[in-house]
Amino acid sequence: MKSCIKTCLLAVLIVGVVLASQASAGWKPQVVLGPGTGPDHVAEPFYQQWNRTLSADTLYILTGFYYVDSTYSLTIPEGTVCMGDTGATLVIQRGAEIHARGTVERPIVFTSMKDPGDREAGDWGGVVILGEAPVNQVNPVIEGGLLDGYYGGNVPDDDSGEFYYCRIEWPGYRIQEGNEVNGLTMGGVGTGTEIHHVQVSYSNDDSFEWFGGGCDMDYLVAYGGLDDVFDTDFGHSGRHQFCFALRDPDYFDDAGQANGYESDNMGSANPVVPRTQPTFANCTIVGPEYNDGMVGNLPPGHTFEYSAVLRRCTQHKIHNSVIMGFPYGLSVRDGCTSADALTDTLNVHYTSIQATLRPGTSTSVHDEGRWAGVTAWFNAEPGNNATHSQPRNPSTVGLTNMANFNDPDPTPTGTSELVTVPANWLHSDVSTYFQQVSYRGAFEPGKTMDEQWTAGWTNFDPQNTDYDPVAAGVDEVVTRPVAARNYPNPFNPVTNIAYSVREAGPVTIDVLNVAGKVVRTLLDTDVQANTEGTVVWNGRDDHGTECASGVYFYRVKTDKGSETRKMVMLK
């Protein structure tokens, strides 16, 4: 007699459907990762509960909310391409690890599954890494609509693996208004995690966002994102050097502000701890007015505003950088944040600001409406020039060539204000980590872009890049040999399981409990090609044993593939 044993463990699921290699030369095998493609699977969770290694010789289609479950790992070798279906999101859960180790010559690419020319920000979700490092919230859930997105803990050096020489393109799927997945989201990621050389392009929300944790990350590129470039929250304390951002004037957050930096702690008079206190050094942040021709010519209704918004008791630090191309300069908000600025626990040292407008009644490009003393404070910061607080054009900064948005050259010219800085530009409390360089911003003067740290692995034309040039089209990927759904779900105690099978052959339909044990076999027969049918499971009549309320799975299996999905019986 088969019993229905309820446990807290999930059944082992089949990770995806492998489609055979095509006959034409050059085709890659194609694998669906997750619950399956199509609108029925947009927000469906899938749990990888074993250590999995992908292959660069395979094209992967990421679907649903794909969770790498705690204690397990996902390894992605150099040169691997993963295309995201609508809403697909890769989530490395707290306690799990990702080992995505790209190279300059063969970066790892996460991108849209749409054809070149048809891609849009928010085509798919993005990459979320969750860890056990400290945050200033109690067991929070990461933003983006994830059901199992808990993060944070008491392990500052927590190790979530490696993620480098990776590109994330067209992410930021909008679950609902104001609730989007970021390009790369990090919650409670610890210092034991290695992340560097990452480009996020055309995210429908922030390009990079950190929630707590202290992971240090260098060599970051944010390209064409809609919301903020680098967003830090909930006690993040990482150090970040050599960062480049370039905003597309036609892409902006129509529901809010589109800024450069944005940083928040929590609280106003009594800030919670640990405090948000990241340090960014040698960054070149270029807004939508990336050359003089864009000044005054941004699209009607745009929401581009500040070079940096620092608020809610953050102790954010910016050193030896340039922020340019935004309408306004700095906005330092609330009394707690401005008080920290005056005591130098929040600072902007040796940093060029270029903006073109004065907000409201301000006497400078900075937001005096929220803090009357912001202009005097910025002008008094070490290495800052008072002329940077007055409106000026982008050309005054002296970048080499920003005429071609898909082939930018933000290297300083020989006469640029970024060419030389004093040897003591770095604040003493963080100097042991950062490289001491003799120039301001992310790029070394006198070198071509082919010699800079962005060379080889970045892509400034993700719209027209064909990642599967020999394939007949993505339609071949989304056709699955097996499809299944059940209704109603949840149910009490009867549910219908509808299935379809593409090819003739044997098919079985099993019900499993959460321990992976077969509760009942509902179908075991041979079928014709393109068979569709429905079977019924009554949880009260399981060969004489009544099943308890809880989570179950049904599996439709053929010799060409299988599909396993979750259902819930509530009595």
Mean pLDDT: 88
* Coarse morphology: elongated
Pick out the low-confidence regions: 1-26, 470-479
What integer value in Å does the Rg equal? 26 Å
Q: Could you list some keywords that capture this structure?
A:
17-stranded mixed sheet; mainly beta; 571 residues; 3 helices; 3 domains
Overview of the molecule:
- The protein is mainly beta and 571 residues long.
- The chain has three domains: 42-215, no CATH class; 276-456, no CATH class; 481-569, Macroglobulin (MG2) domain (Immunoglobulin-like, Sandwich).
- Helices cover 3% and strands 35% of the residues.
- It contains three helices and 38 strands.
- The strands form six sheets. It has a 17-stranded mixed sheet that branches. The protein has a ten-stranded parallel sheet with strand order 3-6-9-12-16-18-20-22-24-27.
- A hairpin with a 6-residue loop joins strand 32 and strand 33 (494-501).
- It is elongated, with a radius of gyration of 26 Å.
Explain the layout of strands and helices.
Elements (H helix, E strand, L loop, with lengths): L15 E4 L10 E4 L11 E4 L3 E2 L5 E4 L2 E4 L4 E4 L4 E4 L4 E4 L4 E5 L6 E5 L13 E5 L30 E9 L4 E3 L2 E2 L3 E4 L6 E8 L6 E4 L5 E7 L6 E4 L5 E8 L14 E4 L14 E8 L19 E6 L5 E3 L2 E5 L1 E5 L2 H8 L4 E3 L2 E4 L18 H7 L18 E3 L7 E4 L62 H4 L3 E6 L6 E8 L3 E9 L4 E10 L3 E8 L11 E9 L3 E8 L2
Parallel strand pairs: 2-5, 3-6, 4-7, 5-8, 6-9, 7-10, 8-11, 9-12, 10-13, 11-13, 12-16, 13-17, 16-18, 17-19, 18-20, 19-21, 20-22, 21-23, 22-24, 23-25, 23-26, 24-27, 25-28, 26-29
Antiparallel strand pairs: 1-2, 14-15, 30-31, 32-33, 33-36, 34-35, 34-37, 37-38
